[in-house]
Amino acid sequence: MAGVSGSQLGSANKHLPDSIYIYWTSLINMRFFVTKYDLSPKVKELMAKKLHYTRSDGSKGLPCYRTELFFGMLPNGKAKVWLWGCGKFIYLAELDPVREKDRDQNGTTADEYRQGPTPTPTPQRVRQRGIDAGVSTIPIPWEKVGKVYSKNTVELLSEQ
After folding, report:
1. Please, which pLDDT band fits residue 19 given cuts at 50, 70 and 90?
2. Residues in contact with 160: Cβ distance below 8 Å, sequence separation at least 6, in sequence order
3. What range does the domain containing 73 cover?
4. DSSP string of 81-120?
5. Which tens digits make up the pLDDT trace of 49-66?
6. Where is pLDDT greater, at 136 or 157?
7. pTM of this prediction?
8. What is the rounded average pLDDT of the residues 89-107?
9. How many domains in the chain?
10. Alpha-carbon torsion angle 16, 17, 23, 26, nearest 10
11. Which end of the chain has fewer surrounding CB within 10 Å, N or C?
């Protein structure tokens, strides 16, 4: 899972982007993907709206915003997107990759990853680390990814 957050570039820019592109590498199978997420007016509205944390006693806490996007990526290039802030996750979308490339953004190919000067986790080493840790490293089937385990409530965009 990858999180995207940060401060504005330039103090004069007060607008959210229309789209976010993520260029990423699946190290399990050495595939290179481009994921695009278009921020809808509804999502932009949620991100810009000033809220308040709710304290454990139910009273109003400090001001907060929903400003972090989290992307969960699978080796087949699919991704799911959540918005985080003010103590709540909001599930936004499931995305297909917009493109699969033959190399990463630095021009490194899958073969170069496998042979690189620094040890890159090969699928065999990743599997062995999983066996040693007692966990499966076989990619989770997409139909099982819909389950989210969080101590926080996960809401749907349609519920907002």
Report:
1. very high
2. 42, 46, 90
3. 2-159
4. EEEEETTEEEEEEEE--SEEESB-TTS-BHHHHHH-SS--
5. 999 988 888 888 899 999
6. 157
7. 0.70
8. 91
9. 1
10. 50
11. N
Does pLDDT of 42 surpass 90? yes
Contact predicate 91/82, CB 8 Å: yes
Assess contact for 66 and 45: CB atoms under 8 A: no
What are the start-end ranges of the E strands in the chain? 2-4, 19-26, 31-38, 51-54, 60-64, 66-73, 79-85, 88-95, 99-101, 154-156
**Tokens 């990423």 sit at which residue?**
24
Q: Which of 101, 100, 81 is nearest to 91 (CA)?
A: 81
* Residue 95 confidence (pLDDT): 95
Which residue reads 């278009």 in tokens? 38
- Helical (H) or strand (E) element with 125: helix 123-133
